[in-house]
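Lab channel / #folding
Pinned by the channel admin:
"Please post every new chain as: sequence first, then the structure tokens as a reply. Keep commentary short and put observations after the output so the thread stays searchable."

First post following the new format, from NK:
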Amino acid sequence: MTPASPAKPDRRPPYQHAADELRREIKAGRYKPGEQLPSYRELQERFGVANMTARSALGVLRDEGLIYTIQGRGSFVTDIEGVGADYTPPAWYLKNSAEPAADGAGLSDVGESGSPEAAEPSLAEMLTALRDEIRALSADHQELRREVKELKRTQQPPSWPPAQS
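Reply from TO:
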């Protein structure tokens, strides 16, 4: 990982530095769509960070829709056309990033054309909506599991007094 400039120290967490570097490499084409990214252990060694920091860096890229993870297999670059070259980081990243967007455009010019296409949700918006829906469904699933567990617990016969032999 490159050290911060002494003139303007970068106070962002290490996972954001690692995510930035991986994001740049994906955008530059070092990692092609469908290609596997380095493992957590390899990222730990490369960036000199802890395992959870490496996981957080990949989590940022996953939340942005640049990568997807398959449990037990690894993380892979998203192969949706247009994500690589035309990718624009999310607003929170542009707001907090030390570097400007590659094309110099912020999000203020998005949707100002007034064309019918501007009214349609972007791919990033659709992915974000799907991610939020999956999280909500996961929370519902966990709540149902807790309810089933509680029902099973209340319907079990008491274990006292002990069975007579």
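NK: The chain has a mean pLDDT of 76.
TO: also worth noting, Strands lie at 67-70, 74-77.
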